[in-house]
Design a protein that fits this description.
This protein is an alpha+beta fold. It is about 45% helix and about 15% strand. It contains 39 helices and 34 strands. The strands form 6 sheets. Strands 16, 17, 20, 21, 22, 23, 24, 25, 26 and 27 form a 10-stranded mixed sheet that branches. Strands 14-34-33-32-15-28-31-30-29 form a 9-stranded mixed sheet, sandwiched between helices. A hairpin with a 5-residue loop joins strand 21 and strand 22 (about 540-555). Helix 8 (about 285-320) runs parallel beside helix 29 (about 860-900) and helix 34 (about 1000-1020) packs antiparallel against helix 35 (about 1030-1050). It is elongated. InterPro entries: ATPase_P-typ_cyto_dom_N, ATPase_P-typ_P_site, ATPase_P-typ_TM_dom_sf, ATPase_P-typ_transduc_dom_A_sf, ATPase_P-type_domA, HAD-like_sf, HAD_sf, P-type_ATPase_IV. Component of a P4-ATPase flippase complex which consists of a catalytic alpha subunit ATP11A and an accessory beta subunit TMEM30A. It is a multi-pass membrane protein.
Length: about 1200
């Protein structure tokens, strides 16, 4: 035993194994026989899946830590502690209560979201699983599964962990699985049982298996697995069999077309490949929130400066005799002995507390409420509801609403996201004659198909023979499996054989071809014992022996089969891409077929060419020897097989070509076109092969006819080095970029060259791979430079983690663009979590993507409205909210700063405590909250019709320093007007009508009254979309302030220790000059902003302002009965009414009559808002944009 263990160690050390670290699994937990290998027990994790962030024990500390990372929360915590420790001008309640409210609301919201994740995890972990124990089938929960357990899985069940396939109910030891939730592909894939165990069909036989498995440690690559199984017999040496990815059944995949399988668990829980491709769900923060934090730091600096200035000036003031100790306020002995520096520090903290309202804690409360309530506008939108699935949009986190209006890159999956993954046979071309199945053209020749021959007019003679060979080739050259319809009895199967079978394959193209040929008269029946059976047009069965299969690969881009007919003739049938077939053809009508292929490619159809050659017995014998030698090779097996295929697949006779349509999702092309017009770059990241993905990109208009395709693929790198390929591509795009720059400078007009880049997973791995000389960073920068100059990028053959790597690479580039990832399968979860915004499609591929995303939508087409309308509105609204909050707090606290110069820097508040507490909570919070929920500076229809408006708000345009400084200075100006206007008014009007004098609280109340009215009316002037709720909130807030002030000062409240505001407000209103002063100061404060906006709108209007003017002009001049011909200007035409058809069969456009022209609200609101779902009209009476909308064009 020691000898064998030593030999195993030597093998590993000598590099015979392909991994550094390995694990040994004992099948059924049975130890190896004595005298073979040493029994080394290993500990493995259980089968629990954890996608949640918090546990019951760490929720409070972890959530508090995350929340206090916010600058404002941490700042108010410090202020609250200062108010508790020292004697300050204001109560600790004024800071503590708002902070507690913010922390509690946020914690409840995040805790609820995590509880939903816990709930989903528990449903998955408690799913029942069947496994074998002591020769019997036992049922237990999935989370209790252990490495080494032998599991039974039935048809349509999902594999509970990563399994090595031991045996199946099928006699040939195969099973079929779909990996839709892993790589997004819903097609069937064939997996093979271990050769020595595939005959074990009962629980007792499987339980008697004595074997160990040696394999690599868990790694995330879905398509790679290296291992071997040692099967022990009674006395002989153990039999070792290699294990590859074809023997591995992955967690998340589903068993299809197989009654049951047995497998042994090798990776469980968070070590499964599916779990390793998940990334931890980190806290995402929007660009607006980051801007808020930066602005808060600026205001914090202003606050500290104010406190320092006042502290210094206070000590300068008190340095003069008798000012420090006035006769009415003598100091105590301890106060006289107090340290000067300690007193200065205490004064500094007191001033910090007095001025701390410049940092608006209520802004975070309002922002949280705005995001939470605003998310309902998305879920209420009826236009984003899909009737087919009965699903509407979902909001999993509302923290990123405004980020939807800042997207610069969209990374989308292909299968199930852009396409329906539903292939349909369109036509085939044989010897220059085109055949279209009657099912497709509904018994009629299409309008543009002049000269097309149908089945009944097919050619005769040699053409007839080639036609039959073509149909036989498509019936035989594939990997399709047949599943009989169990509801049809045996007698009817022969008669209904063309309709009673279900075809399944790893490639949906192959199924489409076999079904299409069935409609043209030839039916593939079955493959049994290496014999393929087909039914010809005369309903006669033909049997062919399958001799060899030359499998498809992405380098050759073709596949072949060698078959033997019942007459003894040996044929090699081959199908593949035109670029792969045409160079190997020696005869046939090449020109006619090539022109038809090119025409179909232009229309976005997926094309394949079909060829054949007849083999003699000697030629077949030589081919068989070549293939057998290559298959048995242990070193460079793939290379030797490729060389053998190259020798065999040549000198073909061309038969024809096929065209298959991969149906795009509805309006997918229109959505991508709109996103590109909005300045958003769209990348497609897919696990599919390059040809398939490229065809889809052409169909959805990501690549256009004039797009020059640049390839960065494994095939290209094999021909040249990676360094040379990258530099060649860089020279190509940069040379054209330089020439464009020169032409634009010289005034010459040139057509813009459109570049599209195609890269595969292997090439990306080489670019991302770190090198010893540190050159990988240069490769990445070069790759990014190429991508920046390409209008679209296609990444194919991508593993899930590679998708996330691409997103991260772009996200961390020097421009730091905002990214969005959208997908529908578990293979997309990594990039969804990596991107700034992750969107899941609620599709056929499971709910993993939707559950882990920030938002979920039913179809890809809904992304257009989500970004261009909802995202645009969300960003504009919250930008105005943030700027307005800083503005109104500058207006609020700057008079307090000026007041200190007139009260001896004594920290005397200008405003009453009630006003200090309620200013941000009650008097001014509700109007801006409603504005940030309902404002529409332009209509939703306009935003959809003019995608370029999205560029006006891109790159955080409304929260740049220029806009921030403008709002800050506007607040300072208004504060100066409030304070000194009231000061000079008091200077001349010192008594009321009854002879009483105005005091300091009356002065502060007058300033506060002007302040509340000015900031509220400023918001009213900025409002473009008025409803009764806006009127109620704005005028209601002003009325509430007046009523509260009357009650607060008109009643002696028994619970108050002091009543300094008694009768102050009524006394102020009893003075005529006070009324005049209030009106005059409000007018002077608002006038500069109004003048600035009017001048800018007339002299330097932005694109948004031009649209607003056009919309107003349109409403003024278009009646309900304006003829349709008058509205044919592109300005008034919606993309939805003129979108090009996604399919050839839908070529007739629908006509629509416009009978009413109004600005329709983009969202669906409940009836409580007072208007119906479809008649929310814009009735803005004042048409100019807020200053936050100023963007240079």
């Amino acid at each position: 035993m020691q000898k064998r263990s030593f030999r195993l160690i030597c093998k590993v050390c000598a590099g015979e194994e392909n991994w550094v670290d390995s694990r040994t699994i004992y099948v059924g937990h049975r130890e190896p026989p004595p005298g073979t290998e040493a029994y080394i027990p290993q500990r493995f994790p259980d089968n629990r899946i954890v996608s949640s962030k918090y546990t019951f024990w760490n929720f409070i500390p972890k959530n508090l830590f995350e929340q206090f990372r916010r600058i404002a929360n941490f700042y108010f915590l410090i202020i609250f502690l200062v108010q508790l420790i020292i004697d300050t001008p204001t109560s600790p309640v004024t800071s503590g209560l708002p902070l507690l409210f913010v922390i509690t609301v946020t914690a409840i919201k995040q805790g609820y979201e995590d509880w939903l994740r816990h709930k989903a995890d528990n449903a998955m972990n408690q799913c029942p699983v069947h496994f074998i124990q002591h020769g019997k089938l036992v049922r237990k929960q999935s989370r209790k599964l252990r490495v080494g357990d032998i599991v039974m899985v039935k048809e349509d069940e999902t594999f509970p962990c990563d399994l090595i396939f031991l045996s199946s109910s099928r006699g040939d030891g195969t099973c079929f699985v779909t990996t839709a939730s892993l790589d997004g592909e819903s097609s069937h894939k064939t997996h093979y049982a271990v050769q020595d165990t595939k005959a074990f069909h009962s629980e007792q036989e499987i339980d008697a298996l004595h074997a160990t498995i040696e394999c690599e440690q868990p790694q995330p690559d879905l398509y790679k697995f290296v291992g071997r199984i040692n099967i022990y017999h009674d006395s002989n040496e153990p039999t070792a069999r290699p294990l590859g990815s074809e023997n591995l059944l992955l967690r998340g995949a589903t068993l299809k077309n197989t009654e049951k399988i047995f497998g042994v668990a090798i990776y469980t829980g968070m070590e499964t490949k599916m779990a390793l491709n998940y990334q931890s769900k980190s806290q995402k923060r929007s660009a607006v929130e980051k801007s808020m934090n930066v602005f808060l730091i600026v205001y914090l600096c202003i606050l500290i400066s104010k406190a320092l200035i006042n502290t210094v000036l206070k000590h300068v003031w008190e340095s003069k005799e008798y000012r420090d100790e006035p006769w009415y306020n003598w100091k105590t002995e301890p106060e006289r002995k107090r340290n000067v520096f300690l007193q200065a520090f205490t004064d500094f903290l007191a001033f910090m507390v007095l001025f701390n309202y410049i940092i608006p804690v209520s802004m975070y409360v309002t922002v949280e409420m705005q995001k939470f309530l605003g998310s309902y506008f998305l879920t209420w939108d009826e236009e984003m509801f899909d009737e087919d699935t009965g699903e509407g949009p979902l909001v999993n986190t509302s923290d990123l609403n405004e980020e939807l209006g800042q997207i610069e890159y969209v990374f989308t999956d292909k299968t199930g996201t852009l396409t329906e993954n539903n292939m349909e046979f369109v036509e085939c071309c044989i010897e220059g004659h085109v055949y279209i199945p009657h099912v497709i053209c509904n018994g009629q020749i299409l309008h543009d198909c002049t000269g097309i021959d149908m089945i009944d007019s097919s050619p005769g003679g040699s053409g007839k023979e080639r036609e039959e060979l073509f149909f036989r080739a498509l019936c035989l050259c594939h990997t399709v499996q047949v599943k009989d319809d169990d509801s049809v009895d045996g007698l009817k199967k022969n008669h209904l054989s063309r309709r009673s079978r279900i075809y399944i394959s790893s490639s949906p193209d192959e199924v489409a071809l076999v079904e299409g040929i069935q409609r043209l008269g030839y039916t593939y029946l079955s493959l049994k014992d290496n014999y393929m059976e087909i039914l010809n047009r005369e309903n006669n069965r033909e049997k062919f022996e399958l001799l060899e299969v030359l499998s498809f690969d992405s380098v050759r881009r073709r596949m072949s089969v060698i078959v033997k007919s019942s007459t003894g003739d040996i044929f090699l049938f081959c199908k593949g891409a035109d670029s792969s077939i045409f160079p190997r053809v020696k005869e046939g009508k090449i020109d006619q077929i090539r022109s038809r292929v090119e025409r179909n490619a232009v229309e976005g159809l997926r094309t394949l060419c079909v060829a054949y050659k007849k083999l003699t017995a000697e030629e077949y014998s030589n081919a068989q020897k070549l293939l057998q030698t290559a298959k048995l090779a242990l070193q460079d097996r793939e290379k030797k097989l490729a060389e053998a295929y190259e020798k065999i697949e040549r000198d073909f006779i061309l038969l024809g070509a096929t065209a298959v349509e991969d149906r795009l999702q509805e309006k997918a092309a229109d959505t991508i076109e709109a996103l590109q017009k909005a300045g958003i770059k769209v990348w497609v990241l897919t696990g599919d092969k390059m040809e398939t993905a490229a065809a889809t990109c052409y169909a959805c208009k990501l690549f256009r006819r004039n797009t020059q395709i640049l390839e960065l693929t494994t095939k290209k790198i094999e021909e040249q080095s990676l360094h040379d390929v990258l530099f060649d591509l860089s020279r190509t795009v940069l040379r054209h970029s330089d020439s464009l720059t020169r032409d634009s400078l010289s005034g010459l007009s040139t057509d813009m060259q459109d570049y599209g880049l195609i890269i595969d997973g292997a090439a990306l791995s080489l670019i991302m791979k770190p090198r010893q000389d540190g050159s990988s960073a240069n490769y990445r920068e070069l790759f990014l430079e190429i991508c920046r100059n390409c209008s679209a990028v296609l990444c194919c053959r991508m593993a899930p983690l590679q998708k996330a790597q691409i997103v991260k690479l772009i996200k961390l580039s020097k421009e730091h663009p905002i990214t969005l990832a959208i997908g529908d399968g578990a293979n997309d979860v990594s990039m969804i979590l990596e991107a700034h915004v992750g969107i899941g499609i609620i599709g056929k591929e499971g709910r993993q993507a939707a559950r882990n995303s920030d938002y979920a939508i039913p179809k890809f087409k809904h992304l257009k409205k989500m970004l261009l309308v909802h995202g645009h509105f969300y960003y504009v609204r919250i930008s105005e909210l943030v700027q307005y909050f800083f503005y109104k707090n500058v207006c609020f606290i700057f008079p307090q700063f000026l007041y200190q110069f007139f009260c001896g820097f004594s920290q005397q508040p200008l405003y009453d405590t009630a006003y200090l507490t309620l200013y941000n909570i009650s008097f001014t919070s509700l109007p801006i909250l409603l504005y940030s929920l309902m404002e529409q500076h332009v209509s939703a229809d306009t935003l959809k019709r003019e995608p370029s408006l999205y560029r006006d708000v891109a790159k955080n345009a409304l929260l740049r320093w220029r806009a921030f400084i403008y709002w800050t200075f506007l607040g300072v100006f208004d504060a100066v007007v409030f304070f000194f206007g009231a000061y000079f008014l008091f200077d001349n009007t010192i008594v009321t009508s009854n002879g009483q004098m105005f005091g300091n609280w009356t002065f502060g109340t007058l300033v506060f009254t002007v302040l509340v009215f000015t900031v509220t009316l400023k918001l009213a002037l900025d409002t473009h979309y008025w409803t009764w709720i806006n009127h109620f909130m704005i005028w209601g807030s002003l009325l509430f302030y007046i009523v509260f002030s009357l009650l607060w000062g008109g009643i002696i409240w028994p619970f108050l220790n002091y009543q300094r505001m008694y009768y102050v407000f009524m006394q102020m209103l009893s003075s005529g000059p006070a009324w005049l002063g209030i009106i005059l100061l409000i007018t002077v404060s608002l006038l500069p902003d109004v003048l600035k906006k009017v001048l800018c709108r007339q002299l330097w209007p932005t694109a948004t302002e031009r649209i607003q003017n056009a919309s107003r002009h349109c409403r003024d001049h278009i009646s309900e009965f304006t003829p349709l011909a008058c509205l044919k200007s592109p300005r008034y035409r919606s993309n939805d009414c003129s979108s090009s058809p996604a399919r050839r069969s839908n070529s007739h456009s629908k006509k629509m009559m416009f009978t009413h022209w109004r600005g329709i609200d983009y969202s669906v609101l409940p009836s409580v808002f007072g208007y119906s779902n479809k008649h929310c009209r814009s009735s803005a009476g004042y048409h100019y944009s807020g200053s936050g909308l100023e963007t240079s064009v």
